[in-house]
Specification:
By secondary structure, this protein is α/β, with parallel strands linked by helices. It contains 21 helices and ten strands. The relative contact order is 0.08.
């Protein structure tokens, strides 16, 4: 049981594709190159060169002073040479700071500019895959590459790559200089450094595993904490004595957090620190011992001794930051992996590229033996369904909750793709058509209606204010019977909805939201209008009244009215009754009542709620 819990915590059931550091390096550079061009690469590599030269010149200064003082030159010449050396060194220091600042700015702006790439991938994603649990998980992980701050993700990845190259080149330069004294010292220095780097890589991979486990357990902790503090949950927690259960779960998760955290620390910090300290101690003892021996034997002058002592000390100063940068690269490579994995995941599209033959006109919609199964389900939600909807026809799609009505609509709209079978629009396979062109033909009001926290006009037109047709907006709001309410608002149709972006924003009532969605559908003026139980929250009388308005507004269009209540059926040319993913009854209202089947039973059960004089009215 414990192994299963740890496997789940490690996220092994939510694997994402892995890429090499080099491949992510190449991709990140290609992306930033599109934004910044060649000047960025000049800046990137110039910063590396200057960052290596400056510490070297600073390290060589004491040896240079000793050399100049013993050169026999005139004092004023020695002073001038030292002055020039210091001026050049300080100038390079300033240049180094300026270049680093420019690189930092470029990396930050690059991360910000990648936002549209992520949003574009979300909008272009196959909706069915994007809506799935796997798709949402991939998005959550992918977002961390851009929105986890400048210490995590692609910005840090590029910065750490630059730091790695700086310290690697510095280490190689110092190692070569030491190798001039002895090739064995050179091999020793790089051998010990390779051992430390190998330890860092191995420990980093282990730390990644425990970091993923920690994230999963921490997510569970946040969920429990959030639910325990929600006011509406308090009554159940108290009445059913659930607090002890919450406490026990918190204790289990706390133990898991501590265990994962300690393992992560030892892998990412403890083992690597011990290995690096041991290799550094061995390196310094051997190299310093060799240099002192050479000096004592008279084989090395004082200026050279000071130079090589500085090089040896400086070598360690390059190694540790290089290993730190390597560790950060390994960590941020994971964020690059998950981001690219999401981008590739969203490339899979149901649609093709063909243009519509008759855009904006009434269409025939035909389904042939269509089945659909949700990911992870054992049975199909839609089962071998065939259906033809004629241009301009009014369809009522009714049935109990869970019959598959909303799923069928998402299939017709192209949001879902059939598990088997085909869907045709005017005889053309939908999967061959352009996604953008196909979506343009549908205006859909779903049951889970909501408004964006934008101006009301933008919510109706789904465009920015400059692109909105004001006269058309007013006409649609009037037809939806929302215009008078809008005129009472302080900024009229420019009033923000909700309070997320404007504290003065207005919150619409349930009925007003229904009218807003109707106005949106009318503004789009698509040839196919679908109403997917948008009145589910209303009482039966209000629902019937609203459907009458919908019907009047869509006389010239193909319309599908979906409901588990039957207030919409009397307006329609044909009624389809769904049960368990199949159309079990089909016909007009009177015909289906005569059959005395499931539709007739459902109608008679609900009929009393639609009669104004019904005694049940007092209970509605």
């Amino acid at each position: 049981m414990k192994q299963q819990r740890e496997k789940k915590a490690a996220g092994e059931d939510q694997e994402y594709r892995r890429y090499s550091i080099w491949d992510n390096y190449r991709v990140a550079f290609s992306w930033i190159g599109k934004f910044e061009g060649v000047p960025y690469f000049i800046l990137f590599y110039l910063t590396i060169v200057v960052s290596v030269i400056v510490p070297f010149l600073a390290m060589a200064l004491p040896g240079t002073v000793v050399y100049l003082l013993g050169s026999g030159w005139k004092p004023e010449v020695v002073l001038a040479a030292l002055g020039a050396y210091v001026v050049i060194l300080q100038g390079l220091h300033v240049a180094k700071g300026y270049l680093e600042m420019r690189c930092m700015k470029k990396h930050f702006l690059f991360r910000v500019r990648l936002g549209p790439q992520l949003f574009g991938a979300v909008m272009d994603a196959d909706f069915q895959a994007f809506e799935s649990k796997a798709g949402q998980n991939k998005l959550m992980k992918g977002k961390m590459n851009l929105y986890y701050g400048n210490q995590k993700g692609i910005e840090s990845f590029l910065k750490n790559l630059q730091e790695f190259w700086i310290h690697l080149f510095g280490m190689v330069l110092y190692g070569i200089l030491l190798g001039r004294q002895s090739v064995w010292i050179l091999l020793l220095m790089f051998g010990l450094t390779g051992m430390a780097a190998g330890t860092r890589i191995f420990a980093g991979k282990r730390a990644e595993k425990y970091d993923e486990m920690y994230e999963k357990v921490w997510t569970d902790c946040k969920y429990l904490g959030r639910e325990a503090l929600v006011g509406s949950n308090g009554k159940d927690i108290r009445l059913y004595h659930m607090w002890s259960w919450f406490s026990e779960e918190f204790d289990k998760l706390k133990d898991s957090l501590i265990r994962c955290g300690m393992k992560w620390w030892w892998c990412s910090k403890g083992y690597t620190a011990i290995a690096e300290k041991c290799t550094a101690l061995m390196r310094d003892l051997l190299v310093y011992g060799y240099l002192i021996h050479q000096m004592a034997e008279g084989r090395m002058e004082l200026s050279s001794f000071l130079l090589y002592i500085g090089i040896t000390a400086g070598f360690g100063g390059w190694v540790i930051p290089m290993l730190d940068a390597l560790g950060a690269i390994l960590e941020n490579n994971r964020y690059m992996d998950s981001y690219r994995d999401f981008l590739e995941f969203t490339e899979k599209s149901y649609f093709g590229n063909e243009m519509m033959a008759r855009p904006g006109q009434a269409h025939e919609i035909r389904l042939e033996h269509v089945s659909f199964r949700y990911e992870g389900n054992q049975e199909d939600t839609i089962k071998d369904l065939s259906l033809t909807i004629a241009p301009g026809e009014k369809i009522a799609l009714v049935g109990m909750n869970g019959a598959g009505k909303s799923t069928l609509i998402k299939l017709i709209c192209g949001l879902y793709r059939p598990s088997s079978g085909k869907i045709y629009l005017d005889g053309k396979d939908v999967s061959e058509l352009s996604e953008r062109e196909y979506y343009r033909e549908f205006a859909v009001v779903f049951q889970d209606v909501f408004a964006f926290s934008f101006p009301l006009a933008d919510n109706v037109s789904c465009q920015d204010g400059a692109s909105t047709d004001r006269e058309r907006l007013r006409e649609c709001l009037q037809k939806a019977q929302l215009w008078e309410r809008v005129q009472t608002m302080e900024k009229k149709e420019q009033t923000y909805l909700n309070k997320d972006m404007e504290l003065s924003g207005v919150t619409l009532s349930g009925g007003e939201m229904q009218k807003l969605m109707l106005a949106r559908a009318l503004y789009k003026d698509a040839p196919v209008v679908i109403l997917d139980e948008p009145t589910a929250a209303l009482d039966p009388i209000a629902e019937s009244s609203l459907y009458e308005k919908y019907y009047e507004m869509t006389r010239e269009k193909t319309s599908i009215f979906i409901s588990h209540r039957l207030s919409s059926t009397k307006f329609c040319d044909r009624i389809l009754f769904m049960e368990e993913g199949r159309i079990t009854e089909e016909g007009v209202h009177e015909e289906l009542l005569t059959k005395k089947g499931a539709y007739a039973f459902m109608f008679h059960t609900q009929a009393q709620y639609y009669e104004p004089e019904s005694p049940m009215m007092g209970k509605i």
